[in-house]
Amino acid sequence: MTISTPGRRGSRRRVAGLSAAVAGVAAAAVATVLLTGVTGSPAFAVTKGSDGAVSVRINEFSDPDGLAAELADAGVKAVVDYLPEGQTCKEPRGERGSLGGRFAVSVGKAGDGISFTIEKGQVPAGETLVLAVSLSRDGADRPPFATALHVVRGAVADCEPVAMPEPGSGTTGDGPGLDSKTGDGDGPSFDQKNE
Description:
single chain; 5-stranded mixed sheet; TAT_signal
C-alpha cells in the first residue's frame, strides 16, 4: 500500500524556496558591503573604564558632533573639528587648561584611525577637551594629516580655519602640528606615535 502526502512535499518546496530567498538576501547584503564599504564598524568608539579613564578610538573622521556628544556622555566636555588637509584652527582658542600632563595619541599607518586616553581629572569641570584634525586628502577613513589636542579653560572660540604652519617656521608648540607639545604645566598635549 502506498500513502501519498502532498502536504509534506509542498512544505519541502516552501522550505527550499525560503532557503534560496534567504541566501539571495545574504548575497545582496554582502554585495552592499563590498560596494559601499559599510561593514558595521562605527566611525568612533568612546569607552569609560572603571577607573574613570575615557578611551577614544576614531576609525573615520566623519562625525565630529557625534564624537563630542559621546565624550559628553562619558563625562568629558569636548569640541571636535575636522578640517581639510593642511588646515587647522587659529590658536589660541581660549585660555590653556589648568592641569599639566600629556595625551598619548597613536596614529596607524594602514588606515586604522587614531586612539587616545583621557585620564580621570585630566579635563576638570569648567574645562574643555579641544580636538582639531587636519584630514588626509585620501579620505576620512585614512590616518589624519595632523592632529591637535589640548584642554581649554572657560569658553572655547569657534574654529577659524587657517593654513598649518610650515615645518621649521619657528612655531614653538603653541600652534598645532604633527608633534604639537606644550611645556610642563601648560596643560595637556599629545605625542603622536606611528604604529
